Amino acid sequence: MKINMSKSGLELSRIVQGMMRLNEWGFSKKELENFILKAIDFGVTTFDHADIYGNHTCEKIFGEVLKSNSSLRNKIQLITKCGIMVKNEKYQRRVKHYNTSKIHIIESVENSLKNLNTDHIDLLLIHRPDPFMNPEEISEAFDELYNSGKVLYFGVSNFTIQQFKTLQSWVNVPLITNQIEISPYNIEHFENDNIYFLMEKRINPMAWSPLAGGNLFKINSEKASKIFYALKEIGKDFSIDSLDTIAYAWLLSHPAGIIPISGSGKIERLENAVKSLELKLSPEQWYIIYEAALGHRVP
Amino acid sequence: MKINMSKSGLELSRIVQGMMRLNEWGFSKKELENFILKAIDFGVTTFDHADIYGNHTCEKIFGEVLKSNSSLRNKIQLITKCGIMVKNEKYQRRVKHYNTSKIHIIESVENSLKNLNTDHIDLLLIHRPDPFMNPEEISEAFDELYNSGKVLYFGVSNFTIQQFKTLQSWVNVPLITNQIEISPYNIEHFENDNIYFLMEKRINPMAWSPLAGGNLFKINSEKASKIFYALKEIGKDFSIDSLDTIAYAWLLSHPAGIIPISGSGKIERLENAVKSLELKLSPEQWYIIYEAALGHRVP
Amino acid sequence: MKINMSKSGLELSRIVQGMMRLNEWGFSKKELENFILKAIDFGVTTFDHADIYGNHTCEKIFGEVLKSNSSLRNKIQLITKCGIMVKNEKYQRRVKHYNTSKIHIIESVENSLKNLNTDHIDLLLIHRPDPFMNPEEISEAFDELYNSGKVLYFGVSNFTIQQFKTLQSWVNVPLITNQIEISPYNIEHFENDNIYFLMEKRINPMAWSPLAGGNLFKINSEKASKIFYALKEIGKDFSIDSLDTIAYAWLLSHPAGIIPISGSGKIERLENAVKSLELKLSPEQWYIIYEAALGHRVP
């Protein structure tokens, strides 16, 4: 149930639990602890955060559990992100923007460490490609964070192929993932070749929104309808009713080694995700879903 | 009249005869043999097949001639392809899809060898980029086919730049061509940089549909009309009436070393193609056709 | 005020004076000499030409000053370009096209040397990517021009990433720049990743039309209006009224080391450009302009 992130040495669980909406789940500290423990029981030991999730609150909520249960930290891997400067009532900026300056990256990680009550982040991602990025500054920030032991591994999110190559050419540490949106509802990273690039580089993609924020199970557009019935058809092959299991199997069967991030706070949903690890789609089954996503047959 | 496929050692004829519609030509075995012999006389010694052409019948028709005339095989080079799983009355599949698994590639080549009555394929192409491809399996299949002498050279068809790089990074054999659609009617591989990539890698592109399936000679759209009159204008420069000769000259004059595939079963059409080898377009002549294809002047 | 073009050794001024419209400025030889001397006073020592500017007249006008003031040549760097074959009353061609054959490149440079009254060009650019280019011929031309001392450095203009890679793979000299259109009005080379590619390769982009031909200061479209008010807002931060200064600062603050080309014949405009060297935009200020260009907030 572990996946080795290419040659880096970092081991993440095959499915990752996302914490973006933790602040909305209404968990007590005890309930969150139980959720985490059950996830670990399922083999899901990696938790995906970002500095800004829940308007900068989610890391802190999660960190309270780590504080009160000191045995937890060694059983899990923590991912967090930095670089987005939100604008709202709490953060009064002139515009939402990105900041990947050395000083901001380091400050953001220091905050994340404090919020999460931990002394190290397992994997730090640049949240969005920053057209104003100074790769030399990012390199210096990464070196400092790596040498101090505060961050063990580094990666990016939502980068194009070229943006990945550019940043990699400047930083001394290997970039071990690109966290991108992939689902039967969103196949843009097949169409823009990003997935093939990561396969060339032996880098595991992480997939955010693997269920397209629930759009997979709505029949409110022709596209959604096609995908829904395709998932249903494959579900029937395996006698499985939970279409999310099929959507996860579609991602997990792919040779790129895609690591999906389950974003739900319902433990049953995570269970449905984990069940998909037992399924292996044939090329024909995989294409039934892919062509529904594409909207037409392959040429 | 031969072209050396980069550093690989494989020699193909400068123009290739395509066999996609062989089943529609209504040739007797003798007529097909005569067609092949005349092509060889013209210097066209390479024949382009695919497992699926004619709903899996064309290889077999061609193979009958090789069986009855045993001196032919050594005078020609055979290209075939694999990876497309058609769906029709004969092949009852749930959807048309691709399959580039190790087991399918090897099985498909074994069938092609049997159909063609030969013990080796000169050049095997993956017919379409397979988003579900497992490059490790393709690599194993290629190694096995190469080591057994069943396939001498390998390439791809319709791949993007990145898909080519990805597959090349996994397979041990060099990919010696990308067979793509190129014609004055279809310049997408100039626009998506594929042709420049192949020039960087010193790889000869093969061009399918070099006459755009006949669209070049119709005046049923503004685009077709522009191209028709551009070809006519250049034809006048050389006192040549057959516009297909000009279209081939446009491809053959290009420094990328494009190898066009003539798809017609009429030997006069192949003759028109071969005649183009004597023409060399100037930059201005080449641009008259290119700008007709583009629909506007270059900036 | 000098910028070192990567590892090449060529030093250009941080801002370059473009000569495309020199023939329209109505300068006497004395006025042009004064303009050049004032530019040099400002630290602007690099002058950007092309064979075709002013329908092949601008180089000659400039060269008259170099002829009469023999001390000037050693104080400046000359850029020129070749490869575009214009079509008009003076040049009666069948179509406008490109020509990057060896014979044309060398002939064009010989003409530029004669027109400019100099024995060497500091930097020669291929003006436009030529889909009919024969990179081997370009390589031979560059070698010959380099070995004879007639051209010191080489580069390209308006090339895609792949076109740049392809040409670089064939020529022995390093390509030290890609001169592309960049301005708050035109961010296409952020969107097509060209700027990130140049950052990967440690190559300084040159920016033509940094003020979008004056479009930056018109309020005749929603886009223009958004950009106008963004520039105004940042101008206020620095108590600067000249919006062109802000536009230049936006380019010069970027870590890619963009070298803008000022195209105006009014010395005050060049002064406004030079003033921008004192400004350093923060990420937030930079994004206020970028998002105006984008038309929406970043995700």
From TrEMBL, chains A, B, C:
Pfam families recorded: Aldo_ket_red (PF00248)
SUPFAM superfamilies in the cross-refs: NAD(P)-linked oxidoreductase
InterPro entries tied to this protein: AKR_Detox_Biosynth, NAD(P)_OxRdtase_dom_sf, NADP_OxRdtase_dom
CDD domains: AKR_BsYcsN_EcYdhF-like (cd19092)
Gene3D superfamilies linked: NADP-dependent oxidoreductase domain
A GO-annotated cellular component: cytosol
Keyword Oxidoreductase on entry: yes
Domain NADP-dependent oxidoreductase intervals: 14-291
Keyword entries, A-Z: NADP, Oxidoreductase
Family, as annotated: Belongs to the aldo/keto reductase family. Aldo/keto reductase 2 subfamily.
Name assigned to this protein: Predicted oxidoreductase
GO MF assignments: oxidoreductase activity
Top-level taxon in the UniProt lineage: Bacteria
Keyword Oxidoreductase attached: yes
Organism encoding this protein: Marinitoga hydrogenitolerans (strain DSM 16785 / JCM 12826 / AT1271)
Transmembrane region(s): none
